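Support request, priority: normal
Reporter: lab tech (M.K.)
Component: structure prediction queue

Hi team, I submitted a job for Extracellular solute-binding protein family 1 from Mesorhizobium metallidurans STM 2683 yesterday, and the status page still shows it as pending. I've pasted the exact input below so you can check whether something in the sequence is tripping the parser. The sequence length should be 428 residues. Please let me know if I need to resubmit or if it's stuck on your end.
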Amino acid sequence: MRKMLFLATTILTAVLAAGSAWADEKEVTVWSWFIQSTMDKSIAAFEKAHPDIKVKYTYYNYSPEYITALKAAAASGSLPDVIGLQPGSLTQQYRDNLEAVNERAEKEWGADWARKIFPVNRKQMQMGNPAGDKNYYIVPQESQVLCIWYNRKIFEKLNIAAPKTYDELKAAAKALTDGGYIPMFQGAADGWQNENVFLMLANQFSPGIVDKAQAGETPWTAPELVEAMKAWKGLFDDGIFQQGALGAHAYPTGAQLFAQGKVGMMALGSWWMQESKFPPPLSEYVQNMDGFDFFYMPPVKQGNPASPPVGGIDIGYGLTKNGGKNPAAWTFLAELTNGAGLQEALNDLNDLPAFDGHSPKGDITDHVKEMSTRFMTDLPKAENQRFASPAVAEALDNALAGVAAGSTEPEAALATVQAATEKALAAQ
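Reply from support: The job had stalled in the queue. We restarted it manually and it finished. Here are the results:
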């Protein structure tokens, strides 16, 4: 009888202890387009350090799935604790759903925490805030530098050198097309990739001019921006982009074709280094990244410089109002952006750090190290990639699509962006 009572007591104690542990376990919900395999590593590192917190991650392809999911969840008040964000327009779109992180970040990293973030990133963190609002609603995890990636093996096979002039770019595109390859894949159905290429072009004519236009200091119809828009149309007319680009998506279609060795060039960014870390089966071109290298867009007008580095925050995270009620959510966000979670992402070469003082560790080839060093050298002098107003970004997306399709002239297209900018500025 004593043994039975002892056994019953032991079982009851174990059940109560398990129930208590289960009750004490906290859950953090996270949504993003951040690659699943890398996020899994970041979560594993976090959960090892915080065994009482479990992270539930939901991956979405950025466009249109993620954008659609955010809109629906915000409308129903069911956003997760932490959401992936881009600075400027996307952050501003959900600012009313986000917690300002200033006090939490200062407590976590010290009063000068923002100074530890690269300058272009720091600038982007408050892009689009209402006048006088000095809050931060996004914490950057990674930085990026935009560029033109090219397949070195295909270039060597066709005896093409990395182009340094526009004529050389056209000649390379023709040689690639004649050789049976897609010249430069453009996912022109995706506004973000079109914006990136336009920024490369605009900054050739006048560095920083898009920032001035966003701020109302320079009209969007300025001659330099009109020339940039004409150069954008030229990439289609001159056969540099592939046929059917207007209906194509950069991800997954373009990226897959590029990785498979069917594309000669593609406008992407420093994040493409991550392909070297993906598990097989992969194309011979992607393994170790030995088959790839990058250059900046050659000058589209004689006398112009090549495109300067353009970039900033690749991805950041925001703490939602729902997450603000869950202390574990900030704990995870902090580790993901400037702790153990970030280190796992860097080790996977997912992109460049946003906070100074971090670097990838582990098995990385000399070629990838060299490319990463070039990107990190260029990051501090990068021109801004982002847009402060969702309406202005949308207007530019529509203008770029209209000009590319030939349905709108550059001047008229840019006038619509100017109108959207004036309206956005007046509403501040």
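Confidence is low (pLDDT under 50) at residues 1-23. The two ends are 78 Å apart (CA to CA). Let us know if anything else looks off. Ticket resolved.
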